[in-house]
Fold each of these.
Amino acid sequence: MHIKETVMKRPLLTIPVLLLLLLASVSCDKDWLKPQPLSFFSPENVFTDKAGYESLLITMRKDLKNENTGTMPNLVMEFAASDLASPWSQLDFYNLTPNTDQYYRFLTMFTQIYGSVKNANVLISRIDDIQWASEAERNAILAEALWHRAYWYYRLVNSYGDVPFINEEIEGAKLDFRSHSRWTILSKIQADLEYAAQWLPVTAGPGVISKGAVGHLLTKVYLANLEFDKAIASATEVINGPYALVTQRFGIDAAKAYRNVIWDLHRSKNFSSSQNTETILASIDRYEAPPGARSAGLYTMRMYNAQWFQPQVLDSQGKPGMVASGPMYDSLGRGNANVRLTGYYQYDIWAYKGQTWRNTQDLRRADINWVDIHELKYNNPASADFGKPLNINFLAAKVDTFKHVYAMPHYIMYNPQDDPGAVPMGGNGDWYIFRLADTYLLRAEAYFWKNQTALAAADINKVRQRANALPIAPAEVTIDFIMNERGRELFAEEPRHSELVRVSYILAKLGTGGYSLTNFSEKNFFFDRVSRYNNTYEKKIQLLGNTANMAPFHVLWPIPSNVITANTQGVINQNAGYDGADRNVPPLTVIE
């Protein structure tokens, strides 16, 4: 077996005051105006020429890596709280409160995102502090900053709902923040993106925002605002741009005949290659970069892979059959199951027209691209079963199939360390933020909302054809199928929870399926879909003193209470269902 190649061989303040002066900083001096990592400069010294502004854009681009790198990146929460996976140490969502989360970063993600908003606002507010060589030069710099702010607010309103919209750099103590309506914020970032689209280049270097990245994000915002014709138009402009779905072998493993195009598409070293015509935007993270410019790593093998090497994986003699070394360790890595994949994603989502995960022709579930339970082999040299296939009947407990052994999408998670001495967690590498397959699926969704199912099916089939999957008929297009296809194509890539929330709001505003905005926290698409496809909660899995539990109001995550209580002269609303929501006031509907 290959495993499948090497398996067997301006103030940075404390968090309570964070939202008061910028909702994003972490110390108590007078340097909060100084964007990271340039905090040893004063803004007056930095923003004296174009280079100073460009240095802040570089910081904003680095902020994008927070979505997918390090020990608990934002995408971990996005998938762990979804239909496709579970957070094994936060199984009881009633333990997620405005004051506590358990190992995950549902609260700190809120404050971290506002740090990125701060960087954008510093540039936006200071854009006219210098004389620009031309209007086009000024507007291109401003446009990219507006894109970054819009990107982070899209994430905020689809994770936390109504939040304060900060429109400018904060230059003094501010204790009177108010929550703005999610819809008001969406309208604002839509206008900002429409402006940005006029000034950004058609093509740009790796990690730099292009017109295509604007169009892709704008498509999502148009969908969120139920402007489906505009979503179709913006997606079409991206699709007709300088991009194409990758359909031929390419990149670092192209010479390995036993691999396929889906494998090539998911090699992080291929993401920003000129051969990859599908990439619209990727975050850039290279091991060869200076230490301050690279992350701790992607940690994909750590976050998503099973804890296969733990002592609970016993052999026929009741002894540990696995060790964290030797065969499999280098390619499966030191998995921790922080994003514990559901059986639905491992198996059922691949069933279509008589095909199952075992016989599907879909390359995204091809045997060469996955490591299934039956392919794991005992790797402990001291075990009597060394080299034999794992037998789940020998596991210490039935729950061990929940986090210690399960099928893993090796083609996505495998990212070897460039440092040969490092623990295999998932090394440095670029990661997709937007790519063309996603754009096709977004346009398909817009067509679906307009009941143009033939056009929706055509776009879905463009993606399925590349994966060698059977085509879907127009009559089979539903929002569930579209979300399934997004799961098949964009696992560990899209912000899954945010996209489910976005669709939940669309259905509620349309009044479809019994959903409505008036009882959104009591009945919503997100909760119904998670309940239907993620049986973790139905089975009441128990781990670490937690019994899996989730309610409809968990569609949105709580606003950190220390942010709310420190805002003594205003009201920042708490989401329904969480402590403090009884003190809410109507959100603002105008951004000054």
Amino acid sequence: MFRRIGSIRSFGVFNNFTGGTLPEFAPFNLIYGWNYSGKTTLSRLFRCLEAGALHPDYPNARFDIQHTDGTQHDHGFATPCNVRVFNEDFRKAHLRWDDADGFNPILLLGAENIAKRDELKEKEAKRTQLDDQRRAAATEAKRLDGIISKTETECATQIVRELPNVGRFNKTNLRPIIAAWNGTLPDALSAEEVQAARAKVSAEQKDILPDLAVSADPIYPLWSESLALLNEQIDSSTTIARLLENPDVASWVEEGRHLHEGKSHCEFCEGELRADRKEALNAHFSDAFDNLKGRIAKAIIALNARKMEFSGAAYPRSGFYTDLHDEHAQTGRSLAQARDDLNAAIQSLVDALELKRGNPFDVVRAQGAEPQLDRLVEAAQQFQSLIETSNERTRRFASSRNEAVAVLKNHYTAEAMRRIDRFSLEEEIASQEKIEADAQSALATLDGQITDIQVELSNATKGAEAINDTLHRFFGKADIQVKVRDNDRFMLMRGEEPARNLSEGERTAISFCYFITKLLENGNDLSQTIVYIDDPISSLDAHHLLHVCAFIKNTFYRLNPGAPKPTRHECLAKQLFISTHSHEFFHLMLDWMRKMTDPMYRVYLVERTDANGLTASRLIECPESIQRYRSEYLFLFHQMASYAENPQNDHQIIFNLGNMARRFVEGYAAFKFLEHTNIDSSIDRLITDPIDAERARKFMHFYSHTLTREAGMQFPDMSEAQGIVTLILDAVRAHDPVHYSALEATR
């Protein structure tokens, strides 16, 4: 057990308390103190021992409590102890009341359950956040993918429109094209390249064109031979002058000569053909003559054969593919010019030979130079190459068009993907999908954790039966019970209806019942537990007051008849501390404890004092006057009457006079006027002189430390305090002499 409090410093109003002269604690300890005296602060010191940590409001607190076994418990918490404290901090930590709608208060029990519920709410909030994040990422990824999908559909439609021979084509057919880029968009095609590819796609298949036959053999031998023929001369000794002078006649005669072989008369005039004339003509048209003309005829034939027979009709523009038309025009002009130059030179020589052949006896001069074949051969080769290009395309028309189609597919696809920066979108989609996947993974983990906590909370609600049993013992009936809701939280019920508009007293009683239930949870040994109970009857009516007194006695006390003193009276806890501001509750508990032997209980007072302008509290042995009078009203009268008769300049006494006077006047007015009004309304009925009434009112207001901290820091002087106290007592004596005499009789 605790033996005594050694010291308390920097712990709220206990700023410098030393308890060395304080009577040692007993198994049962009763502590009395008015509101704001420091009673709850003292309970918080014990709660620090329970928690093993300083109260957050007093981080610099220092204290030590001595144990009966000689050990010391202090602010270092090096020595653990089993302490359980019921006070306002316990109620805030362990119970929550949700009555925002004014009905159906919900009770969530247990500090660990509250922590789990808070953890559950945090995880559920985190789950909502993660799910929102997952959904947002999925939505964004879907939106970006929709942009890509829409663009792919539009691109596929364009390809079908631009390439009518492509057949069935949709966005699925684009994927292999895009995949072949390996994440990098290809360079854009020039307008000329696109136009060329379109021409290949739209072209009709052409027929095979004949090859162009151009002789590249040298023309020089034939040319030289022809020139020699022009210069060759026949022996003219036997020639006939008239025929030489008249080539046309000579030609006519030469031809007619062959028609008159073996004839004696002329076929034309039927005149006689003389032998000497035939002989003369034969001499003129000799073998040399015939030989020369024969060679000239062959030369003409040979020269004409070397002419180039090239006609545009054989190679029309329409016979070539559209993209070859420009080249066709250019090479065709070059070839035609080279052809015309060659043919013209040859024809000039042929014309000279024809002239020579008409007059073999003359020397004929050639007009042109020998033609050069290089230009013709080069032009012919270029045109032949164009023919071969066209023919090759015709032979591989299908594959060429397919290649052009592939080029345009790639081009249209690249242009469409370049507009939306596809690969950047894919990176963003991958990023959003990773966020979604990470959130999904975290959600899976979080869902498992939430399930575990929900199971733990569900298991925790099994304590509802134990709480209901305690409530039944406290209230003496099954008036208020805890029922488990579907969400594993507790609802307070009155019978079959939710308990509505619970009073503060009922809430305090329910909280206290829960505290008693928790004392035994998880196998805790009550006999090894030091219990501190602060104000278990706050705002309770007389019915609950008796209940809580009986409840505490039945829970913590056992009488062992026949056992020797002091073991006849047994504290079921290791040690019990009870503090209260209620004078009635104090005396009910004191009456019970007085039936025990003296070593079993102690009675103390938490007193708030002021010294040198500093408000402070201390724990002292409870004065006999408080223990003797069951009525707080009677106690206040004795304190005031004693001071009026024997005023002392003792700050500890003067400090409390304002508060005692106020409480005394309120008590008198309550039973005398049967109404609960503040002193502003009742003082004028008690003290009829308005000036005296105002003096008393200001004294009670200004020096009542329960109203404001500023007023509590002020001291009335002794003469003022004595005058006001005497004024109030005289007013009561004048107002009700019989009542005052009864008060005096108790002194």
